Amino acid sequence: MKVKREFYRSFKDLPSEEYLSPGSPLCAGCGGLTTLRQMHKVLGDNVVIVDAAGCMTLLAIYPFTPLRSSWLYTTMGSPSAGAQGLRDALDVLLAKHRMSADDNLQVLVLAGDGSTYGMGLSATSAAIHRGLDFWYLCYDNEAYGNTGFQLSEASPFGSATATSPQGTQQTKKNIFEIWRAHQPPYVATVSAHEPIDLAEKVRRAMTMTGPKLFLALAVCPTGWGFDPALSDEIARLAIETGVWPLKEAIAGQVRHTYIPRRLRPVREYLKLQRRFRHLFQPTLWGETLTYIQEQVNIYWQSVAKAEGAKQPTLA
Amino acid sequence: MVLRIRFHGRGGQGVKTASRIVGTAAFLVGYQVQDSPVYGAERRGAAVVAFTRFGEEAILERGVIEHPDLIVVGDETLLANPAAGVMVGQETATAIFLNAESAQPLVEQYALSPSTIAWDLTRRTQAIVGVASALSVGLAAATARLVGLIPEAQLLSAVRRELMELHLPEGAIAKNLDLASEVFNALPSLEFPLRDGQETPQKISSVLYEGLLRGSPSILNTGNAEQRQTGAWRLERPEVNFEQCTRCGLCFLQCPDGAITLDQNGYPIIDYDHCKGCMLCQTLCPVQAILSKQEVRSW
Amino acid sequence: MVRMLLTGNAAAAWGARLADIDYVPAFPITPQTEIIESLAAWFADGTLQGKFVTLDSEHAMMTAAGAAAATGVRTFTATSSQGLLYAMEALYTIAGWRAPLVLVNVSRGLSAPITLGPDHNDVLAARDTGFVQIHAETCQEVLDSILMAFHIAEDSRVWAPVLVNLDGFYLSFTRESVDIPDEAAVRSFLPAYQPKHPVFRASQPMAQGVAVLDSSIYSYFRYQLHRAVENAGPVHAEVSARFQAQFGRPYGAIETYDTDDAETLLVMAGSFATKGKAAVRHWRRQGKRVGLVRLRLIRPLPVRELTEVLSGRRAVAVLDQSLSPGLGGILYHEIAAALAASPQRPQVLRSFIGGLGGKDISQAEFDYLLEELETVKATPYFGQPELLFTERDRARVRQQLALAGKSPEGG
């Protein structure tokens, strides 16, 4: 079940302008980069990106930047505070008529899960709490990717990272609900595999003033251990297995923008990735895999209940 | 007196491991050793470089090797990419080793030193190890043999140690040991005089205040990354079969780098100066209208 | 002009108000809070136009301040002690952006153990950040320095952030009479802020704070910042001259007190220099030729002025309100290095540590210090520091250790 499209019916309707030039040093097949590119197309002109330490910091390496829009690299812990300073300064200049309205910018924080779920959360929580009018894109690749893929608070249960070589027993922090608890006007999960869903969400949020927060599953060939040619396939499987639900919360009200009719087994998603390989070989960790599947099933059962929708056929 | 070796390859070809195997082997022989990779922002497929130095006395050098005695090139396609820096210092190098079928055409094309030796590591690595891009052991064995100061026994011990550290299964290590022996015994030893370090002469320049515009790490030419050509990262090359293409636009939408544009009629145009060769477009094309052509032999 | 009794904190707030600031990102910390409370009130009642916003930490506060300054608004903020250290990463970051703002630090000793009284370990920890650093001795100087600080920060030869320091409690909560200059006079001294470099605007996209991996250009940018802070020396002198012409109060990079014929000099910084001046007056009455040098500009370090005034004297003591464990007084070492090149450098250069955590410095301690200088012919440079500590201090320590359950035998 997909929600009714309001703005874009097909790929052809999506804005075709490019705001990122090629030539960045990010990994081939980077899911985070695709997400940023797609989101920027809908945001359009006049954007300043406030960046946190993470993979995307490498987008702009002196003297080159692929972004045709503006960029400010801050720190790992305070991009949302940088956004506050920028937004406030622009508002003050507008109010004092020291800047023309044409010079105004939309402020977009760009942060990975390392910053978003951990070090940067205090500054972001405060910015949401103050009702700062800004966009936030978390490219969540479920670990500290830029330093070589170490465990983060976004790493899913069972996944191996450079600092959880046998697979972590911690579960992924629910940042969507943490954000939603702040009651911002808009929160959404997105995936580059569903560019129309993503564009619809950005477009919907555009009419809103205040924090507009996007959590993207950024598939990561380098860290997750799969051939970059499979980037879109992995992103698709994350959605079809129900591991990555597509949803939004408008003024706190959650709705899923896609509810699969039938969930594919999570194994199909996990087995393609090196970070879950230890669950399959040399011995099959059946109980662990069953547990992961159960967690997904429980989630979708509760979604069906809460939204009065038809429950997907469980795997 | 030090011997300096500089290894060139692409991210993922095991250049760092090659430098470590040679380092460990020299260490086992009893030399003073230094080895180090350069970590840049580049990723899989991009040019990478690593260094090994060894000698009989304490090595009073650090960092980048500008004047190597031996240049080891894991991937001949890097010669075409000046940014990879393969040629830096080649005029003072004693020898160059190329992983290629034959040296002569490359020596002519790139005006390489006449003491360039080529050997087809890719083919043998594919045959013995089963992965054409797993070049680390072959490169290390070739190096050990060419410099003539590392016996086979120490080379093999070093291969075992380094591969165990990478948690390679025993079967894969055994195959790599076979490869090491074969390469080692197939190549000649050259005369490498150990010598003091050299430096390109330079003049000192003073840095004065140059105004507020120049003084911060800001870029005014936004979007200028287009001048950086990432096409050289490509291991495979996607090609569109326009007869089959339905102009759905999916490849354009999903290309992470925006290296695919649509022409007036909606057909995809691939920007080969920038396409990194992730081949995502080929996988997702609903009608298989994108084909793959191998670009780098050793992959 | 109005003359009023103002605390150091109120003087700081007045300085910011007269500078017609646009933006204050804030975070409370003792003993700085009154500054931001005053500013909040003035933004609330319309006295100041722009925005006051409370952040979640000093790290966030400094990031917001830098981003706003890089967008072209006149930005002011204030912190203290742990807050300055919490912001440390952001201090370096925004100095690297060359964000021309003014930060007031209200000095307070550092944890552990956590304390409230002032010393200079907090502000001196920020000496390598790329901020220009001015230390005030009086409430008047706090106000005046903030006006001068914006002038220096926004000068195209500097274009770097400026930190103005005042000591907690001894200035922050102490009222003194302060001349508050007329707004019109201040406007003519410090015109409205006009960015002279690109700022964030839709019509001129810019990437700022970009990662630099090439070490040549990294070195270049860091050295440009050094040159900029270095330029703040002559710019400070120019701005001081203009300030004096307009408001009558002179400010040098260093202040000299009874130095003309002095054989012995005492070097201090901040509000405790007032105590040093009292000691000098006391000694002068006894016929001793002693004077005091107060360091006002600490970054850039006024090496020429220091060398000029200290050379040719018999003995110099540097009384640091800071301690670098394993080294000693921080300013002592900077001054010893500055004097190293002077052929007439003093034979005696001693390091004393006093006023840690705001501990008072009594006349007895000053007398001891002078005696120590008088009884030696020469000292090695970079010698051991000596902590100024009295029997009374010792008794208090003994008593408290006993109460805390520690045996008198030590260990």
The biggest sheet of chain A amounts to:
8 strands, mixed
End-to-end separation of chain A: 17 Å
Largest interface: A-C, 49 and 44 residues
SSE succession of chain B: EHEEEEHEHHHHEHEEHE
The percent range for strand residues of chain B is 15-25%
Distance between the termini of chain B: 37 Å
Secondary-structure element pattern of chain A, one letter each? HEEHEHHEHEHEHHEEHH
Indicate the CATH class of chain A. Answer: Alpha Beta
- Order of strands, main sheet of chain B, comes to 2-3-1-4-5-6
- Overall mean confidence score, pLDDT of chain B: 93
Give the amount of beta strand of chain A, in percent.
5-15%
- Tell me the radius of gyration of chain B: 22 Å
Write down the oligomeric state.
heterotrimer
Rg from Cα of chain A: 19 Å
| Low-pLDDT runs of chain A | none
The fourth-level CATH homologous superfamily of chain A is: Thiamin diphosphate (ThDP)-binding fold, Pyr/PP domains
* Contiguous helical run count of chain B: 8
| Global structural class of chain B | alpha/beta
| Strand order across the largest sheet of chain A | 2-1-3-4-6-5-7-8
Helical residue percent of chain B? 25-40%
What does this structure look like?
The complex is a heterotrimer of chains A (315), B (299) and C (411). Chain A is an alpha/beta fold. Helix content of chain A is 34%, strand content 15%. Chain A contains 10 helices and 8 strands. Chain A has an 8-stranded mixed sheet with strand order 2-1-3-4-6-5-7-8, with helices on both faces. In chain A, a hairpin with a 2-residue loop joins strand 7 (246-250) and strand 8. Chain A is globular. The model of chain B has no long low-confidence stretch (mean pLDDT 93). Chain B is of the alpha/beta class and 299 residues long. Chain C is an alpha/beta fold and 411 residues long. Helix content of chain C is 41%, strand content 18%. Classes of the chains: A alpha/beta (315), B alpha/beta (299), C alpha/beta (411). Strand 2 (70-73) of chain A pairs parallel with strand 9 (207-208) of chain C.
